[in-house]
Amino acid sequence: MKAIVCEEFGPIENLACKDVADPTLKAGHVIVNVEAAGVNFPDGLLVQGLYQLKPDFPFIPGNEVAGTVADVGEGISHLTVGQRVIALSNLGGYAEKVLVPATHVMPLPDPIDVKEGAALVTAHATAHHALKQRAKLQEGETLVVTGAAGGTGLAAVQIGKIMGARVIAVCSTDEKLALAKEYGADVLINYQEQDLKTALKQATGGKGADVVYECVGGETFHACSRSMAWEGRLLVVGFAGGEIPKFPVNLSLVKGYSVVGVFWGSFTQHDPKGFAQNMQELLTWYVQGKVKVVVDEALPLNEATKAMAKVMNREVKGKMVITP
């Protein structure tokens, strides 16, 4: 089969599309024919050696896929060959086939397009877990979303609205803000044209944000850390801007708010039951039309490096998808 292979940590463009052996079926696992694979910011960090996970070489990146079941291992009764599924693969998704534990494979409802299904898992599930389990977002609270036109930011905008929040979208361009508005944002802030701290103060009537979904880092994080409401929750989701900020803990003390880490991958391992319940809720919302994956572009497997670079350069509105 064809796959994107990382032989050593280095620039994204060093990745090669090559022939590798098909995965070998194991008990408790299924092999999925990959029709689409979601592209996420951590994928680019991973192949450069900048992520917390350090796989053995060679490895195939890609942790979320959609397609059909090609083969079923021993002990599996809830999945069948030919069934449409979405799967959380951890690694191996940028390939024509991938071996996945059956516990991390879910039926893909017929109304959901396969490309949207592949892009649903990580971005929307991260936002869902962050707002539901980590922030415990309440109806009527103010939610600030940075990077609000990216895959997980746009998901946070949508899910925040479902949960009854007033959503403030923070983006770097008016074009990105227009997308966030289309999917539910109530207030729009272009941080390239406005001072973010001042704009947040005005938008919250001086109260500050109850919850911030922060996935940019750098100066954006610093502005948000000074714009929190009493008993607010500042969610640390990622650092798409490239700079991991240092946090002055006296701010949390004086302003009485919490800094809360969000690592969805660990959540799936520590609370598989909660993960399954979240995914069922997400899929129900999707079928009901309450949430939507915006696919910016779908590229073939041999253009995976182009897709990854576009994500890493923050040029994406919604999600990038690879179609093996």
UniProtKB/TrEMBL annotation:
GO molecular function, one term: oxidoreductase activity
Stretches assigned to the Enoyl reductase (ER) domain: 10-322
InterPro entries the UniProt entry points to: ADH-like_C (IPR013149), ADH-like_N (IPR013154), ER (IPR020843), GroES-like_sf (IPR011032), NAD(P)-bd_dom_sf (IPR036291), Zn-ADH-like_protein (IPR051397)
Signal peptide: none
Alphabetized CDD domains for the sequence: QOR1
SUPFAM superfamilies, per the entry: GroES-like (SSF50129), NAD(P)-binding Rossmann-fold domains (SSF51735)
Pfam families named in the record: ADH_N, ADH_zinc_N
Protein name per UniProt: Zinc-binding dehydrogenase
Source species of the chain: Alteromonas profundi
